[in-house]
Task: structure prediction
Amino acid sequence: MTNQIKIAVIGVGRWGVHLLRNFLAHPSVSVIAVVDPHPERLTGVKQQFNLNEDVILTTQWQDLKQVPGLTAVAIATPASTHYALIQDALQQGYHVLAEKPLTLDPAECRELCQLAEQHNLILMVDHTYLFHPAVERGQTVVQAGKLGDLRYGYATRTHLGPVRQDVDALWDLAIHDIAIFNTWLGQSPVKVQAKGMVWLQGAVGEDAESGRSGDTEKLLCASPFEFGSLDSTETAFPAERFANAQRLVENTPTSSPRPRVSVSPSQAGAVTSLGVSVSPSQGLADLVWITLTYPDNFQAYIHLCWLNPDKQRRLGIVGSRGSLIFDELSLSSPLTLLHGEFEQQGNQFIPVNQSQVMLELEPGEPLQRVCDRFVVSILNNTPSKISSGWVGTQLVEILAALTVSLKEDGKVVFLNQ
Result:
C-alpha cells in the first residue's frame, strides 16, 4: 500500500509487543524499526512476527534519527523515560503515541503538549480502557441520564501481583479507573484524598514482609521512578519528584452543573509546585484507598491492591434509578445495567422496578482501536479528543495530587478547574 505511515516501536516488553502486533497488522502502517535495550527481545520479536530483513532492530533510539521517511513513534518504556524520549521525538518532527502515564510530572506533561502543538504534531496517550467498548457504551448510558440522579461511584482493582519495585499501587493501578470515571461523568475531580498501607516493600530498615518499624505499620506514599534505563526492572528514586507542582488550598467548591470535559492548556494546569519529597526510605504502598470529589459533590471511591488473591476489575456508578456496572472479568457481559429504585410507603422504602440488562457491546480489541485512532489522527491532522496529550496531562495532575494526599495521611488536596 502506498503512502503508509512509517512507524518505529520503542520498547517491546510486556505491553510494547502488543503495540507492535497491532501496528504490523494495520493496513495504513509500515513498521520500519523496533528499539529495545535488550537484544534478546529484538531477536524474540523478529522470530515471533517473522519481521522482514529491512526492519531496523536496534538497542539505541539515536540510531533512528537518520532513518528516512520515519513519521511516528510508539513509546512503551518505563514512565521515567517518557519525557526525554517524547521531547526528542517531537523535536525531530515525529508524531508520538506514548504508554500511560504521559510522564511523572504535570509540568513536563504540559511542556510536551505545548511542544506538540508548536510543531503541529499528534501527541496521544495509550489510555487503553477509554477505547474499551464497555467504557464507550457506559458513557452513553450515564450521560443519557438512564441512572437518574447520580449518587456515588466505586471501583476495585485488586490482584496477587505483579508487584512493582519502581512505583506503588497508586501509580501502577489508579489511572485506569480515574480515566473511566472522568469519561463517564464528563468532568474531572476538584479535590482528592488517598491513604495507603505498606507491607511488602517497607521503608529502609523495616521488615520487608510486614512493613513494620517497631510495632507501627507504615502509611506511606507513592515513589515514582526517576529517568534511567529503558529497562523497567532497574529502579532509581528521585530526591524530589514533583518539584514543579503546586497544591492550591481553597474553599470547597460549590455545587455546579456537570459539564462535559474539554481539556485545554488552561485547564490542564491544575497542580503546580507541590515540592513533594519522594524517596525509597518511605516505602511503596501495597494498598491504596482513593476518594475523588467532583464539582457537584459526586464522590467516587477506588480500592487498589496488588497483594489480594481476590482478583477484581470492577467499577460502578449508582444513581437514583439504578446502577451501571463494568466488570471486566465477567464472562457473560462486562457491562450490566441494574434497574431499581425505592417507593416510599409511610415510613418504609420499598424496592420497585427491579431488572437487569446485560448491554450488548461492539466487538473489537481496545488496543487495536487505540492504534487505529493514532493513525487516523495523523492522517487527518486532528488530535484525539478521547486520549490526547492534554487528557493524559490532566490524569497525571490528579495522580500528583493523590501522591501529596497519600504522603500526608489522607489530607484533602484541591485541584484547579
